Amino acid sequence: MADISWPGSLNTKVYGMESGWVDNREKLKYKSGRSVYYLKNSTPQKRHPIMMKFDDSKPLPGSSLTEWKYFQNWVENTIKSGTLPFLFPDLSNKGTGTRLYYMDEIGDGKGQREKKISFTLEEA
Q: pLDDT-based confidence at 95, cuts 50/70/90?
């Protein structure tokens, strides 16, 4: 399967980013009360809750869709509501290079001319 790229017609400006790790340990509790933890993966993955803004007032050049409608169409039909990973600027490295992410916890767009949406990117 070929890697899916972030659409070139959409902006990549990220706002309000936070970074954290995905839970990477498993707990085993014995009857004696003692607990032991095991790593799930040798490399912990990061999660980045972010917010983005998309224009919803005028169509993109050469398209009948606004930036917001194009984004919605891409999420629903290309990355299948976040089930397929896609390449996006590396958030762990301040946008240098790209990294594969899954989109999770996709919110609703708020606003009229400019839609603001929050979602979480999880490293693939």
A: low
